[in-house]
Amino acid sequence: MAPGPIGVVGWQRLHPLSPLVRSSRAVAGIAVVAVLNAGQVRHGNPLSLAIYGALILLGLVAGFIAWLVTRWRLDADALRIETGLLRRDSRRLPVDRIQAVDLVQPFLGRILGLAELRIRLAGADGSRGRLSYLSEADAHQLRARLLAAHHGLDQATPPPPERVLLSVPTGRLLASVATSFLGSSAGALTLVALVLSITVPSALAVVFGSSFSLLFALGSGIWRRVTSEFRFTAAAAPDGLRLRAGMFQTVAETIPAGRIQAVRMVEPLLWRPFGWRRVIVDVAGGTANRRGRTSGGGQVSRALLPVGRASDAELVLDRVLGDHRVALTRPPRRVRFKAPLGYHFLAAGYDRRHAVTVNGRLQRTTCWVPLEKVQSVRRLQGPVQRRLRVSSVHLDTAGRSVRAVLRDREQIEADAGVEELAELCRTARAARSLAAPLSSVQ
Amino acid sequence: MRVWEALVVGTLLGLLIGGGVMVASVVAGLAVLVGILALSVTSLWFLRRRFRAWHYLERAEDLVVVRGVMLRRLSVVPYGRMQYVDVTAGPVERLFGLATVKLHTAAAASDARVPGLEPAEAARLRDQLARLGEAKAAGL
Question: What residues of A are in contact with residue B66 (Cβ under 8 Å)?
Answer without folding.
Answer: none
